[in-house]
Amino acid sequence: MCSDEKLLLPEGTCDYPRFVYGTSSRVYVLEFRGTETVKTLMFSTDQDLQSFDIDWYRGWLYWANSTGHVKRFSLTVDQTEEVPTLQPACTVRVDQTTGNVFWLSCDQLCIGFTPVFLSKPRELYQAESDVRDMFVDWLRGVLYWLEKGHVSTMNLTGGATTEVMKMGDGVIGSMALDLRANSFLWNSQGEGLTSLSLVQGKAHLAGSRWNPLGSIMAALEPFMVSYSKDNITLWNRKDARRVLDVSVGSGVIGVVASMKKIQKGRPPPPPTTPPCRSPSVMCPGSSLCISQTQLCDRQRDCPDGYDEDNCVKSCSKKSDFRCKDRRNCVARILVCDGRSHCHDGSDEVGCPTIAAPTSKAAAQRCRLGAKQCLDGRGCVLHSHVCDGERDCQDGSDEQGCESINTSPNVPMIYMTTTTPYTQTPSPSTPPPPPQSSYSPPPPTTPPCRSPSVMCPGSSLCISQTQLCDRQRDCPDGYDEENCVDACKDPGDFLCKDRRKCVSRLEVCDGRAHCADGSDERECPSLPPCVLRCDREEVCLSQKQICDGKTDCRDGADERSCSSNSAANPRAVAPVPVKCRLGSLLCSDQRQCVLYGHVCDGEADCRDGSDELGCAIHCKTGEFQCSHGNRCLPQQQVCDGTPQCRDRSDEQDCWKPSKGCSHRCDNRTRCIPDSFLCDGERDCLDGSDEGICATNQCGASEFRCSSGQCVSGALRCDSHADCRDHSDEAGCAKPPRCPPELRCPRSHECLLKDWLCDGEEDCLDGSDEKNCKAAPLKCGQYQWACASRQQCVPASWRCDGGMDCHDGSDEKGCGRPKCASQLFQCSSEECVDPSLVCNQITNCPDGSDEGPGCVLQNCTSPAAPPCEHSCISTPHGPRCGCASGFQLRPSGVFCEDADECSLQQGALCSHTCLNTRGSYLCQCHPGYLLELDGHTCKSPVEPVLLACVTSELLLLGVRSASLRVLTSSSRPVFSLDYHWGRQRAYWLSLEQESILWASLDPHSPARGTLLKGVKSDCLVVDWVGENLYWLDGEEGQVLAAHLGRDLLRPQDCIVVLDEDLDQPRSLVLLPQKGMMFWSEIGSEPQIERSGMDGSERVVVVSRGLSWPVSLAVDHLAHRIYWTDEKLRCLGSAGLDGEDLKLLQLSETSSPFAVSVFNDRVYWSDTKRRTIQTAHKRTGKNRRVLLKRPGQPFGLKVVHPQAQVNVSSPCGRVKCSHLCLLAPGGAPGSGPRAVCRCPAGLLLSEDGVTCAPPVDSTFLLLLSPTTITQIFLRSMRGGLGLKQWPDHRVLPMPGVNEASTLDVSLRERGVYLADSAQGSVVLMALSKAGLAPAPGGPVLALQDEYVTALALDWVTLNLYWSSSRQPHVHVTATRGRYTRTLVQVSLEETSAIALHPATGRLCFTSLGRGDGKVGEAAGGMAQLQCANMDGGYEAMLWRKSVTPTSLVFSNKGTHLYWADLGAGVIGSVAVDGSDYRQYKTGPGILMSFTRTENMLLWLTMDNDITRLWFSDGGQPKKLWFEVQTNVVSLRAYSKTSQRGTNSCSEKNGNCSQLCLANPWGRRCKCGHGYHPVNDTACSPTPECPQGFRACWDSSNCFPDARFCDGVFDCPDLSDEQECSYGNAAAKPKDGNPASASPPLEDGAAQVRKNSLSCDQQRCGGHGTCVTADGVENCQCMLGYKGAFCQEGEGSGGSKAPLVLGLLTLLAVLVIAGLVFRRRRAMAADRGGGAEKETLMTNMEGRAVYFESFTNDLYDPSDSDPDDKVLVSSADGVSHQEEPLPAS
Q1: How far is CA 178 from CA 59, 99, 182, 224, 256, in A?
Q2: pLDDT beyond 80 at 1102
């Protein structure tokens, strides 16, 4: 036992606890000595550490840096090594037993390990989701990790995974694994310290005694370490004591418990010897190793009894079999199945020895050297027959055997990770010396019986014959390591198993020195073999018998000898040999040979009896081995198992296949059929291109003399299409061209531009002779060679390759750097170090030789201790590294050179994998790696689909085959194809249609896909099965589904139409749900968005002039384009990074571009060529096609160009069109978005498109009329320049209507008249609108209603006015009014109600300098409360000028129009989830929402436009009219259904019943006070000289009214006051004027406090009294009895100005914003607005006879329907989708 301050170490000693913690650059040791700590720096680096761990028994510190590299540093000597991993790794853990390092990839999806000796790494587990952390329990050989909130486990060698426990999401920070306690520890959210016992499988809370903060970083019982707020805290878990806090700063990446002290300068023990050799187990907390047989043997072997823990007493299932070692249970069906599932193999003990009979037809055939079991179900090696182990299930391999000596001197094999060795333990022979302090005693039962070998790091045993057999049997490939391919001494003998070389003197010496005995085979028969022993591996002659020397291991050669036999050897008669099963006794009875060697053509018996009686000639149908006289049935030939000794029965068994149709290079390489005659030499012997002349072409094709096939229509067309020009030979008709443009003695014609263009078009090259050199003029992105005769791309300058003929592009580039294994001359050349200081000058300047070669070289005492090699130079010795390594800064040690990073993209076509000392190129699926080991090639030939003038051609890129697909009368500028459908699509300018044709040469099918299309570019989405195209005139991106052979215009949708400045080209990347397009307007640029129009961003905006074509390289994740004005090719990353421009002299007018594999292809309209070059460098340029016509559209047709990706649309099941969009997580696939064609709306399920509900209608309010339009009228067309089918409803008696609301139950319309300051109810009938009896519902004087909303359940009217900005409620039938919410700002502009939830929201505006809104210096607020006025709260304050409030149908979100910002906003009622939708050009006027649809009005140049969108698709214009519309509302049959707590009998309230989320509250109007919860009574009159407050709560003297001080609780004592000076106003900023209590009947306003000028003349005139009568003398610009009319050309405008003061102020602001936007757009896009402004309007129809719908009869609704739906319902917007709640 150790004291409380100390810890028991694995060595069995007590010491102070030490923990190691790491930061991003340093690793420290913290030793806790009681109340003091000692901090020691262990390691530091300039790299960014991500994780670390320590191998305590070998002295290595492993770490992973931020780039995913794993390295290890020796803590005893200064040495760092690179640790290879399969993927970049960011987490490392060490197995202390084996020294193997386990790693977790940086993408948190792959777990693997690398052996301690840094051999090939191995993947253990591939995760489905992110792995949070990983732990290695090296004591028990178990690996744990956290995935999907679960703790999972597997063995350290791999295998099946098991879920231990579900953790949930409550873990704070990190978790710690306590190896000694076999438990996990972590801090839980709200629960504190939690521990999970891996023995019991249960978690429990530590209790209130514990309060560790932050993360649990490490634990080793009884101590634990936590980290929080820059402090590391040590805890003692015995008593929950907080031992010590240590400040360590921020950025701690991990903490590990120290296992032992490591002494500096002491080399670590060999990393190949673990503390316990597998499969032995170390007892926790000690250095004792026990064997597997000691586990659960009912005897306590470990000090703490660990070996008897977790033993199984009984199986959970009665039918299961419990292993004898009590360690686990196995299913009954696994017992006696021939494979051990118990650790002790007890499930395979005592099984029946006689297996069920097996028919010979089903018997397993055995290979040479193996014996078939009697039951025919298995094969065992002959070396395993009669070896004391039962290998056959029926035990037949141990039947009929001689008794075997089972003395204790049985060889036992011990295994290390280098070479196995055997030892025979005996009393006089001590066990092998321990390799470390942890070497276990020799196990009582060897892990593997000789001659089997155990694989390192596992319990797997393999036979000797499995070593170096070119098959990987051990998990880490140990059995194929250290194999010998050639002997160093040519005279030595190489064993056939490739495991060693033996001296030639030891061959055929009678004793096998090779493990397989091959050195004693085929030996001369003399001297005769008298005795064979040691399993017939040793052959003894007569002289070796009884010679006093024991030659046989069992001493058989010296038995039965007389005492003087050593001195006088005697002849011993040979004893007949008894052969074991599977062998034949020779006739002399002295020798046994295997039956497989009988009749094999070689005499194995000394007397040759094994070859007697053998057939010389085989029977008909049999196969005779090439060596010997053995005959085999034909079915055993080429069956994969050689029966002939010379394996001749398995030779020449190749059969051609699609992937391997031609063998070449001496049968060492096989290529697919598509590589034959493709114009590229794939075989070194060239045989793949040497048989092309015999190729057959199609019936409609012409075969060139070279074997190339071209379309028959191209024969004798005066232009060479065959490479050898043979298609223009022997033509009857003369060429149709003048002689000067004709090749001599040929039928070929030339274009004038082809003369002296640098390319030989005539066979004799005459078109390039006698050319005059034109003045050299290099382009903007080119470099002029020194000769002034050549221009090369600027990117070729100093790239390491001479591109100028004079080599000037590589001069002046600075001193080149040689590889570390080479010597650099002073003249910059690189030479091999063996040529330096060899007394021969090899450098041109002689700098490789000099006096320093002799004075100081690598043999000098001061030479550096180089890790790899030392190079003698004239300047002294220096260290060099092997190829693939580079010198470290120390100049002595070498480290792996990451070639993949140093030469990024230059080494491999596709992907580069760095390995230790080298690298490996890999290809993407569907490609093959070429012989050079760098280039990837597709087995399928790429074909170019190109348009040359009016012909669509298919050109084979390799074979140059040429076929005419179709012809047209006009050029085709854009085309694409669909590989799955085998169709080509193109735009026909002649027919203004999209056409298609089959790519199948045997199918002439073609047709029209869509008519009436004017487009510049089309592309195919092969994943989503959609077609996209550009409309440059309209500035739109459109799409349609390819599900039909003939599409209609109504099948198309607009994907994007906002702010597109002359879009020219479009390209898709469906694998990521992205699309790119180029714009060639005033600011050329390339933009990117989702294929649904979302997430729009500018990618490239520099280095562009006229980008006419785009292409995407999905392998390299780059975008390519052609720039016609710059005459160059450009490329950049998908985000616009790494911009590159390639300007070739041969590219004079590039048009279309396409990319595939390593090549980029483009068409040049001026040179009339299609060319290709390497996509990264632009080099290796070739002309693929050159014809008189101009080439335009171009695409590479290949299955790998349209990789089959799973479409998310198949899971979403959209009813109409499904578009792809970028996925949410990086690296994820695309997601599906449903869209609807014009006239259909997306339902709330986000999947179904449906027409608008017939009952939904809009009301558009003008000053004197209401226009009613049903949404179904939208089916009549969009983009109208007149009213759609509608109904006009005049409003009698209304002068200036400003807002409205509707009661569907009453068929009434509530209208606010700003001219009269009233709210009136209009009854709607077929005849129109008529005032309801009873007069106005609300009558105000000298003010007007600014906001209005109707509670359609109670018919209570919520309102606010210009002088009473609070929110009031009036009972429309009982004429009771009450102020609900006090508004602190100047004006309330909109009110929205949601009776279902009892919620009320409103907007209030502030004023600054006489202007409204935040933009003018005031503020705007969205506030909400209950409909009874309670629980008022601020909802949103970031809008400029919000108005037109609308609730979602469920009341969870609020929508509004922000007039100042020009957007439609939405927010959840809790203030979260703010989103917005841009409404586009024009001044936003009003907004509403219904049926998942957003509708809004804009005004521009006196034209009112109505727009709509479902919130996801781009906006669409419904119609435009030249009419003043001030408000927009929407209603349907479902808008006002259901009940609430106020529906029945007004909620039993006598006056006002006001709903809230919990029910209702009864309120009294002004002039009344409550009697109880429901009843009200008139307020008693106050004494004379007193007045009552509006809420009747108090009476105050008259002097206290309008005195500038609030006295009444409802502030009514300071309402409707007229103050003489501003100082007398109330100080809290509340309004100081309001209407008095409203009395029964129409509400009247008192006149006792307002001047006559304000009351009678509306503030626009002066009162004049004449004959006792007051009249108004109006100001300039006003007229009328009350100065209410403006002197304009129209009707009265003064009331409108008065009633819409807020709106006009907003319009001024919005107008300025809009003009500024339009000016910016004009500067950017050439001054073109995409929407057409209508100037000549048609006359407006007043009434359509077909329009007979009225407001709805309440009887039409279902009385049982209790669902409340707000007056507008809709969905969300475009930039961030608005919720469809």
Answers
A1: 22, 19, 6, 9, 10
A2: yes
